[in-house]
Amino acid sequence: MADKVLNFDPLKEKKRLSDLDLEIFAILNDVIQPEVSLEEGEAAKRIDELAPLGHQSEDEDSDDERIEKFLWSLWSLIIEVIQLVPRDHQGQNRITLLVKSLSQTSRCNCTIWESEASLWEDLPLLGPFMRDNWISPTYNGEVPEVQLAENWANLNSFAARLFGEGLAQWKNFAV
Fold it and tell me: With CB atoms 3.0 to 4.6 Å apart as the test, which of 44, 86, 95, 105 could cross-link to 101 if both were Cys?
């Protein structure tokens, strides 16, 4: 059975996306859709090129602060998108392989939240973003809307794939 084309327009309409977000979103969309127009390795390269290292900036943020903001945009968008990708859709595997390709990209070290990390090898901030979004839709004791439950199952599918690829350890979760 072929994967269906996914419509992410509601996400784009719901959220005000910056120019950077739109560039990341276009890359993710090209990787996820069944008619793959962008391989995971090339997508990782394009995302790496968007990283604000050594770029001139109009603000006075340090490289580390710009990287943190960039990672904030990247991980939040990946998580929002992956929640809309059905758990049995090949887009789940493709985004996992994109993250794996990023983790194999050697770039530089950065300091995030007072901890030294390799920009891609350590996938800084991905863990906290996953943790913040991993709250069960039944947390408040109510039966969730179907879409919320599906989004959570899709996120769990992605988490399991990351774990299976050795990209996450999350020892504080039962995965």
Answer: 44
Dihedral sign of CA atoms 134, 26, 32, 13 in order: positive
Q: Is the pTM of this model over 0.85?
A: yes
pLDDT tens digits for 15-36? 788 999 999 999 999 999 998 7
